TrEMBL record:
It holds the Pfam family Choline_transpo. This is Choline transporter-like protein. Keywords: Glycoprotein, Membrane, Transmembrane, Transmembrane helix. Its main location: membrane. It is found in: Cell membrane; Membrane.
Amino acid sequence: MVAGKSPGQFGEALKYDPEFKGPIKSRSCTDIICFLLFFAFLAGWGVVAYFAISNGDPNRLLYPTDSEGRVCGYDPEVKNKTFLFFFDLTRCASPKVALTGCPTPQVCVEKCPTDNWFYDGEITNSAKPEELICKIGVDPTSSEKTTLDLIKDGECAYYYVESIELARRCIPLNVESHVKAIFNTIQEVQGFESLEDVSSIVDGIKYVFRFALSQQVAEGIFKDIQSLWYIILLGFVVAMLVSFLYIVLLRFISTFMIYFSLVTFAGLSGFGNYYTLNKYLTIRGTMQTMTSSAKDNFINGFNKLGELETTWLVLFIIILVVFLVCLVILIFLRKRINIAIALIGQASKAVGSIMSTLFFPIIPYILQLIFLAIFCFLAVMLASAGRPSYHVYCPESGCGCSPGTNITENATCDVESFVNSCVNATCQFFSYEVEPFIPRLHIYNVFALFWTLFFVDAFGEMVLAGAFASWYWTFNKSNTPTFAVTASVGRTLRYHIGTIAFGSLIIAIVRMIRVIFEYIDHKIRQNTDSWIAKCLSCCCRCCLWCLEKFLKFINRNAYVYCAIYGKNFCVSAKNSFSLLMRNILRVTVLDKVTDFLLFIGKMVVVGIVGIASFFVFSGDLSFIQDDLPAMNYYLTPVVIITIGTFFIATAFFSVYAMAVDTIFLCFLEDCERNDGSAEKPYYMSKDLMKILHKRNKLEEK
């Protein structure tokens, strides 16, 4: 074999191996059926997108809808009426209101009530006509009907209480005190049946209240992102710079950087334990019980999550457990750290020879963001693609239907063709009802997200594997191909898209099954107390998690093998797995130690950026507070920047992880195929041969 040429891919074939049929020109397309299946699936995703865009309207999710199907603050008739008012909150006393809406007349109003009022049949206690809250199109000041008739006909509300605007809905504060203040002296209202118990009103308000609060928090987070987007982007840029600086330093001083990471990780963990424990003890000693309204308890509890002693206790426990687990792992693997550092050093040389590999992960990262954005957009459009559903509503006095009429309260109706054969019955908007096939489209959209994300991830792995394999199988490392990454991208796109689609499809199917089991487990925990059922569900979830991790391990090495030899997915998976099993001890004590050391380095980057963002936004650094925009929840940018830093660091460190895995697999193949003789020289670098006590006989001569 000619020195400087790699087996089967970069030069002449190995004559003593019957599996090698020739050089790179003999490479052919692999797994063509999966290639066609993947693009057919993408075409189907395009059909789903067309339906979602044609029928969806996100304004239905952002703005409340009144009983006539008008979107408050959006439709022309109610453009200036941005708040939704509920006529009778007693009818909201059901946990289903978050999904189906509250079955009571709802109207868009310009402002929420600022005082308490109820109609008891006495003119002296009645509101002035202009103070009544009525349906759109009903003018109590010019109506020929009396106040009693307007209320009995369901055209105006017969009570309202002081309310605030919450998620564009009028929600009473101090629920029980307001309700009791109105109804503590009356048991029934003239012309009406007896009122329901005060507790039902309170329950109804609470259900609406919880739904509105959750939407209020979501809107607050969204507004924080809007006002702080440039600072969040700056945080991502800082994360990229820190990650890139770490990788560059790892290229030149790998040994120092690994030990520096271990020491820094221990220091950050110690500081985190001290800080969280100190905050917990301080808050516990100074914080007294607080009394506030339901809204303040919820929103301030979220807004000031960092002021709760439980928050810091949980963080202290998490940091301590992570530190102890990593410490135990380091103690058991301490003898293998030097060899692992040497392997990382070889990966550093490979990265240094092919510097474009450091920037290549940006491409898969952008592609994954694009697919994630498409998924979120289609999910919102599909969620708002339902058609309006209308139900029959009758006031407290009854529907007033003539004998033989089939109209019943809460029955579905068509607002355009509704024939009012009852005196008081009306057909009003109830909720947005989804078509029977829309849930299937949601499932298709979720599976498309999984498959595309795993496909892009697999594409990046195979491209990097091809580039690093070209470095390893070059006998003289100084002659590494100049455009190794570009050549690897070309080979992957031309020959192996089907193999990538095959491997990513397997992982996507397993992930989809995991999601289904997570849903089943959630239902089991809600509807049963059987510990046997919960235990079985937990075991199934654990087994599926292990299966996914195992398949990802198989796929990763199959991509490396495919990048080297050009075999299809099944053959590559079989051969690579057999090779690893023949060297299981080396895999366990060497390859996984390097993965752990790289994980420690990644956690150091995440910890540095995350702690810095916390001190910036929490107010501990007073000299920059005046330059920051107002925030609803200061934890919003901290969490987003920390999570973003994790993914950015993962993108950079994945280059080193892929380099280590590729070089390790090539090293095992090199050891099995070659013996250091002049006919079969080792392709590993001199440093790696020195560590493993191997040498080429040609060099001895």
